[in-house]
Each structure stands twice: as C-alpha cells, then as structure tokens.
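Observation: inputs received (chain + magnesium ion).
Thought: call the complex predictor directly.
Action: predict_structure
Action Input:
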Amino acid sequence: MITIKSDREIELLRVAGNIVYQTHQYLKQYIKPGITTLELDKLAEDFIKRKGATPSFKGYEGFPGSICTSINEQVVHGIPSNRKLKNGDIISIDIGACYKGYHGDSAWTYEVGTIDDEKKKLLYYTERALFEGLNQIKPDNRIGDISFAIESYAKEHNLGVVKELVGHGVGTNIHEDPDVPNFGKKGTGPKLKKGMVIAVEPMLNLGSSNIVMLDDNWTIETEDYSPSAHFEHTVVVTDDGYEILTGAMHNG
Ligand code: MG
Ligand code: MG
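Observation:
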C-alpha cells in the first residue's frame, strides 16, 4: 500500500533526512586511504545517535553494521569490517537514520585518494542518472517515468543497470511501497501524488548488469568484478515537483 504522508509526518521525515545528509557531510572528511570501514561505521553511528536518531540499518533483517560500506566491485550491502580503504578505491556509503519513528535513506559513492578516469566517469554519470530520475517527479507522472529516465541515461553512457535491487517508499518503515526500479517503461506503474515519499537509487556498473551475492549473505558484487556506483536521495512529491529530504535543508 502506498501511503500519502501528512504535513506532520513530512516534517519528521525532513528531520530524519537531514540527519542522514549531515552524517554524509561529517563522514566525508574521514574517507581516506588507511581508514577501515568499521571505523567509518562507528563514526556514523555515534554521529547519528548524537543527533537523537538511530541507524535504520543496524539489526535490519540481522544486518550487523550501522551503515553499508561497499568498495569497488561491491554494489550494495557491504558489511563494515577491518578492511582498510586504499588509494584508488571507490566506496559507496549507504546511510539510514530513524528519528521519532520516521526514516531517511541516502547513499553516495566517494573517491578514495586519486581514482582512475573510468571510475571518475562511473561516479559522474551515476550521480547524474539519479537526477535524471528525480527530474521526472511531479504529481500525475508515474514511477515508470523515473525508471525509464534512469535506464535510458545509463544506456546512453554504456553503464550496466542493476535490476534486482530497486528504490522504494520511505516512512515509518525504511522500505515501503512502491518499488522504484531503475529500468522500465514510460507511463507505467503507480501515479505519483503530492505527499508520497520515495527513495530513488540507481546502482550502475562499469561492466555488465549481472550481480552475485557473497557467502556472507549480504554483500552484493558485480559478476564481472567491474566497479559499481550507487547514488540515492529520499524525496517528497510536492505540488509541482519534489523536495529532496536527504540534501541540504529545504532544497529541491
Ligand atoms: Mg539506502
Ligand atoms: Mg534505499
């Protein structure tokens, strides 16, 4: 069931989203060669708690970390560990925070030190693909319009689109209806309405779109080991477009 959020709920989602945004901004300065993903996890968890929220992913279906840390060919759901970041890596950090029962969800892929041109291209186009999708959001457009915009943009730039994992509604649950796939047909799927809150999150690969799950039953990687990027914002549908809840306060 797709729910329409009240003004009071949207205000709480705005606070949760802003905590996620601030956590990303805080964590950024620590993303350097030598730091472990577990150290990043601890920094994020402490920061989220200081803001009066809790990490949405900790314990979610048994996930052990507070954030997801996915390096290079890892697409999503990387478990924080003692692995150290190296110069030339890329790391996707997915952060969720719950404030007074309402969630925010945003992922970003960061450069570690100096990365090669192929990875630079991947990050640039995946971030742009997110906004290609977001720009379709307004009342009476459909979920498929978002999906189609992301897929076409990714194809135009020869990137593999991960299909098994999708964006989603956000509210009192971190994952709600509707699904927001990163591929699909224009004019299909549920109609967007003012007050709907969704997370849009393209996961694009430098190689094929095929993925595999590791033995830890969490980490998803590309089958061909090509690097993968992930950019995600939680947004609310407004009268004539959308507002980003996980960006700078009151933008979008
Ligand atoms: Mg996320
Ligand atoms: Mg999400």
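Thought: report the result.
Final Answer: The radius of gyration is 17 Å. Residues 94, 96, 105, 107, 232 surround magnesium ion (ligand 1) (CB under 6 Å).
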